[in-house]
Design brief:
Blueprint: H1 10-19, E1 30-44, E2 47-54, E3 63-66, E4 70-77, E5 85-88, E6 114-120, E7 126-132, E8 142-148, E9 161-170, H2 175-185, E10 194-197, E11 214-217, E12 222-229, E13 236-240, E14 245-250, E15 253-260, E16 262-265, E17 270-276, E18 286-293, E19 306-312, H3 343-352, E20 371-382, E21 397-402, E22 405-407, H4 414-419, E23 454-456, E24 460-462, E25 466-474, E26 483-487, E27 492-499, E28 518-519, E29 521-524, E30 528-536, E31 540-546, H5 549-554, E32 557-562
Parallel strand pairs: 1-4, 3-8, 9-12, 11-19, 20-25, 22-23, 24-32
Antiparallel strand pairs: 1-2, 4-6, 5-7, 7-8, 9-10, 12-17, 13-16, 13-18, 14-15, 14-17, 18-19, 20-21, 25-30, 26-29, 26-31, 27-28, 27-30, 31-32
Length: 582
């Protein structure tokens, strides 16, 4: 059924409130922000280079709003290259035009042009983030997106203060060149030169004692840490020496609280933890906080550690600007960090994540499904074309795929093509709903099979309101690996996880349909699978992709089209007048 076109006027908004199309707590407050995408010279690790930033800040500015707010963010592109911004985890109910991934929901913002992202933050509260969604620009173009709740926190601990902990990666060289070299020759990318906390590498890197994040705390007080993994290509462990962390939220969804000595956070994910400053510091007056990689790959990686400090107030060292230089060797167990290869810790940590499932914050996991999709998430090794130089394994090219479909971005945004009913071969809706040729996904010899993939822009299309289950099956092609899969436009429930191959006859019986964790990014276990469920109730076109940027570049992506529903309130809104053109 065709949607009724509605205007944005106040009269219509009021009618929608009365009709129940918008939440009763809908706010008429509109928060305005200005983002200028621009170059700035930034010095880290003994050298200075031009760095792509928003408003000259690295990381970029924090967006802070309240649940129910309207948000308008004008992004002006002051560089020669294209750009876009994605508001990671914001559901964008009916406003897919504001989602941000280039060539999926919009054409990029070209140099010298502006675009205003307009959306309403509905039914969400907590820690999310924003980042560029064009090429590898999110290496430095990212920041926190904080949604303050309308209701008190569902935990009783009084919070003295809150602050973001944003992990990133730093390259001494030009990140664009890293990506271009990788795509030109089909090899793996050069690893980053450092990890960062809030843009600062910390004392384990050269010339970085002064570039160290330090947070002053009062003994006996409790703090809310809003932890975001904005790293391009690495899952990370995080811990604070001598302290325990209480997990209370993941991906802007409250959880049943539990204590842990460390957390694992994958690229794209956020985790809120409570920390009580209840320890007695040594003569330095500080405790180290640190992050280093969770290793599941045989590919080269950044084998280093970013660190900062909790500094206790009212100690003799309180006024010392920078703590003493750290030793050159790092002992992870001394600082609560798991070993890099500690999949057992990751599994146990993930098993503890549970939705709050309270009357005020219910768990709405679909108990039954209308459609099940099984997709193999894989790395691939493509034969080198004739007369070309390839630098992947055995002189071939690396790619990645879902059900052996390596995603290719079209020349016009898919949402525009879909909305305007342009069937111009830019995309198709025949994404395979199960592997075309089932095999022993996690038992194959990593490099002996034919791993050539197919290329195209195939998407899955479902009616509005479909209860959808997607099983994400990892493989052992090239190597087993943990894949953080992000779905735009929807939260989902992780109802099952396991190692090896998904057993369609047995594994669903073990699903958690009571209080599974709700997220927007799932870390598919290394050499295993994850099953997610959600109601496809947000009309539009939504990107699905691995949040390891190298894998997305290689094609580990697809998309979901959710058709309009029968009511006007279940339809995509018309495109804004300033939507960029290709």
């Amino acid at each position: 059924m065709e949607c009724l076109i509605q205007h944005y006027g106040l009269f219509v908004v009021m009618l929608m409130i009365l009709a129940g199309a918008l939440p009763s707590g809908f706010s008429q407050t509109t928060r305005h922000f200005q983002f200028n995408v621009e170059w700035k010279n930034v010095t880290r690790l003994c050298s200075t280079k031009p760095l792509l930033t928003v408003n000259g800040e690295y990381p970029g500015p924090t967006i802070a709003v309240h649940e129910g707010d309207n948000v308008e963010i004008k992004v002006t592109n002051h560089i020669a290259d294209n750009t876009t911004i994605h508001w990671h985890g914001i559901r964008q109910l009916r406003t897919g035009w504001a989602d941000g991934p280039a060539y999926i929901t919009q054409c990029p913002i070209s140099g010298g042009k502006s675009y205003t992202y307009k959306f309403t933050v509905q039914y969400q509260r907590g820690t999310l983030w924003w980042h560029s969604h064009y090429a590898w620009q999110r290496a430095s173009v990212y920041g926190a997106f904080i949604i303050h709740p309308r209701m008190p926190f569902p935990f009783s601990a009084p919070i003295q203060d809150e602050f973001p902990i944003i992990f990133g990666e730093w390259w001494n060289g030009d990140v664009d060149e890293v990506e271009n070299e990788m795509m030109k020759y089909g090899g793996g990318p050069n690893s980053s030169d450092a990890y960062t906390i809030n843009g600062l590498p910390g004392p384990f890197y050269p010339c970085s004692n002064k570039d160290t994040f330090i947070k002053t705390v009062e003994r006996g007080k409790t703090y809310l840490l809003r932890i975001i993994n904005a790293a391009l290509n690495d899952e990370l462990f995080f811990a604070v020496a001598n302290h325990t962390l209480t997990v209370v939220e993941i991906d802007a969804v409250y959880t049943k609280p539990f204590t842990t000595t460390a957390i694992m956070v994958a690229p794209g994910q956020t985790t809120n933890v409570l920390l009580t400053a209840n320890q007695v510091p040594d003569s330095s007056g500080t405790f180290l906080m640190a992050a280093w990689p969770y290793l599941t790959s045989v590919f080269p990686f950044d084998n280093s550690t970013t660190a900062g400090f909790l500094r206790y107030k009212n100690t003799e060292t309180e006024n010392i600007k920078h703590p003493q230089k750290m030793p050159s060797t790092f002992e992870p167990n001394k600082y609560n960090l798991p070993k890099m290869e500690d999949t057992k810790f990751v599994t146990e940590f993930s098993d503890k994540l549970r939705s709050l499932a309270s009357p005020q914050y219910p768990c709405t996991v679909p108990k039954t499904i209308d459609k099940q999709v099984v997709t193999v998430v894989s790395l691939n090794l493509q034969d080198c074309p004739a007369n070309k130089t390839c630098k992947g394994y055995e002189g071939k090219r690396f790619f990645a795929s879902m059900n052996n479909q390596s995603f290719v971005r079209p020349s016009l945004s898919i949402l525009e093509s879909y909305y305007n009913k342009l069937r111009n071969n830019e995309y198709s809706t025949d994404f395979p709903e199960k592997p075309l040729k089932p095999f022993d996904y996690t038992g194959v010899v990593p490099v002996s099979e034919n791993m050539n993939t197919q290329f195209g822009t195939k998407l899955l299309e479902v009616p509005y309101g479909t209860n959808l289950e997607i099983v994400l099956q990892g493989t052992s092609f090239l190597n087993v690996e943990n894949h953080p899969i992000h779905i735009h436009g929807h939260n989902f429930f992780i109802v099952g996880r396991g190692f090896g191959n998904f057993n369609v006859a047995k594994d669903p019986a073990k699903y958690n349909l009571i209080d599974p964790p709700e997220r927007n990014t799932v870390a598919v276990p290394t050499g295993g699978w994850a099953a997610i469920r959600f109601k496809a109730d947000n009309p539009g076109v939504w990107f699905i992709h691995c949040h390891l940027e190298e894998h997305t570049s290689w094609g580990l992506a697809s998309g979901l089209i959710v058709q309009n529903g029968p009511r006007a309130s279940q339809c995509v809104l018309p495109p804004p007048k300033d939507l960029p053109s290709c």
